[in-house]
Write the C-alpha cells for this entry.
Amino acid sequence: MKHYQAVLYDIDGTLLNTVNMNMYPLLRIIKEERGEEWDLADVVKFMAYPGMKVMEELGIHDPETTYQRWVRYVNEYEGGGHPLCGGGGDAGHSPGPGGAPGRGVLQKEGPIPH
C-alpha cells in the first residue's frame, strides 16, 4: 500500500483552470458532433454534470466514443493547467464535469493513477 504525505483537492480552480480546460474542448466536440458554434457561456452549466450525462444532454449519437475523444482533447488542452501541474496534459484528469476533469489530485512525482 502506498502512503502519501499529502493529497490536494482543487475545489475552486485554484490549481487548475478546470472551466477552460474542460469546456473549450467540449465546444470543439459540439462543433464536430452537431455542427454548431456555441459560446463558453452556453456550456458552463455542464460543469456540474458527469461526462456521460453531458453526452446525453447534447444528444450525442455515439456517446462512449465521443466522450473518449473529449478526454483526449482535455488532456491535450494547452491553456488549462497551472504551471504547478505542468500544463493541461500532466494533471491526471479525464473530462466529464462534476468530478471528472481536473480533479487536482497530484503527488510529488506526477498524477496519482485512478
Strands lie at 106-107, 110-111.
